[in-house]
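Hey, resending since the last one bounced:
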Amino acid sequence: MDIMDTARLNIKKRREQKGLRQQDVADKLNMNIRSYQNLESGVTKLDVERLALLAEVLESPIEELLKQEGVCIHQEIQEIKDSGSGFVYYQEVSGKLFEKLLDAKEADIQLLKDENQYLKEKIDQLMGMLGKK
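The structure tokens again:
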């Protein structure tokens, strides 16, 4: 499951926790119900801008919407109860999450390289046909 699939599941879960219907969220986003359903189901691509809007509507940090079960990717503040000395800041980051993100980006880069090579070949063919090569 990629990170945006995780986000879609968390968006639905958060929406239901808040007692909102899909229509309610669609109205707050100024979109029709079908467009929102496509977004939540994965038919329509969920991009960062839409994720930010959804986080605002659902009153939830973006990190929470991206969080996989049992994985904490945001900085937390934990009170030290036994010493009473205040707060300690710690950050627990899942290596698996970063590996998945990196793999996805590497796949995107390879796809772009392949498309670039294909386009170069087509341009060369066209230039050859025009006798300019």
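The first strand starts at residue 75 and ends at 79.

Sorry for the duplicate.
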